[in-house]
Amino acid sequence: MTSTRDTSLQSDIGKMKLEPDGSFNRLPSSFRNWIQKDGQFTAERDRYHLYVSLACPWATRTLITRKLKGLEDIIPVTVVSPHMGEFGWPFASVDPFPGANPDPLYNAQHIRDLYLKVNPHYDAKFTVPVLWDKKLHTIVNNESSEIIRIFNTAFNDLIPPDKASIDIYPEQHRKEIDAINEWVYDTVNNGVYKAGFAGAQEPYEKAVYAIFESLDRLEKMLTGKDYLVGDTLTEADIRLFVTIVRFDPVYVGHFKCNLRTIRNGYPALHTWLRKLYWNNDAFRSSTDFEHIKVHYYWSQTKVNPTRIVAVGPTPDIEPL
Ligand SMILES: N[C@@H](CCC(=O)N[C@@H](CS)C(=O)NCC(=O)O)C(=O)O
């Protein structure tokens, strides 16, 4: 089912285009459907499938939430190889890698094939995560911030009450969560990419200073606290975690975000990170440092043309 259409401008990160001033601009996701009662996509067991990369911070948000909500049996998951190359993300059938899988549904070779199956003229990026509908053979949603909200509530009737009652976006904290998400997305989650992909000194420096200003702000917010909002785990923690856990292993070196490290520069963030990782299996089991490091250093050849994978830091994450 491999397409013969030349999609290299969409799939090959080596051909990525920057803005005229050398800055990186992330484009919006294309599939934005919701799973809900009386809609086209209703909550059902064994209807949906999740495609992820363990390297990708956006995909990891969905893995953490899937596990927290106990959706493992309801929504099976397939992991791609971390070698995102010319055709984008490959499955293990064409690029075997420990922890990666073949596509169990269509034996696709790349994530690209799934997008082109839905729409042969699809002209945007072939990104993960992908929430797939096995009944209609289509993509429900490929925007992680929405997939985690779908997982938070849509399947509550199908899971045990203790899982259904977990709410990572509680009504009374929504305003505060939305406000944090906005600046954390811009200056931290996407900020590291703006620094790393910058093609000129000025946008790079602008992004790096903004990242560390936000880390300073987060450090104050987390001093003496286990969670960002109130005293419960919310999506604000999940969305921040996926970037902070990659920070010392990848973003400090590969993306040149090196004013400070988390482990030596931010004691409260460091404690918050390690508590989530070591005390909550949803976080630890969704984090794979091998996939993370190999992906960034190998795939992003504009940033690292030799594809040499940095050996440090050791350990990837410190004990509590
Ligand atoms: N806004 C999307 C972003 C997803 C995204 O950019 N994923 C990256 C991996 S970390 C990807 O698949 N990139 C493929 C490409 O750029 O060709 C989300 O949050 O789901």
UniProtKB/TrEMBL annotation:
GO cellular component terms listed in the entry, alphabetical order: cytoplasm
Checking InterPro entries in the record gives: Glutathione-S-Trfase_C-like, Glutathione-S-Trfase_C_sf, Glutathione_S-Trfase, Glutathione_S-Trfase_N, GST_Omega-like_C, GST_Omega/GSH, Thioredoxin-like_sf
Q: Which residues form the GST C-terminal domain?
A: 170-303
Q: Which residues does this entry assign to the site Lowers pKa of active site Cys?
A: 251, 296
Catalytic residues (positions): 56 (nucleophile), 193 (proton donor/acceptor)
In which residues is glutathione bound?
89, 125-128, 143-144
The organism's place on the tree of life at top rank = Eukaryota
GO MF terms held by the record: glutathione transferase activity
Could you tell me what this protein is called?
A: Glutathione S-transferase
Q: Which organism is it from?
A: Boletus edulis BED1
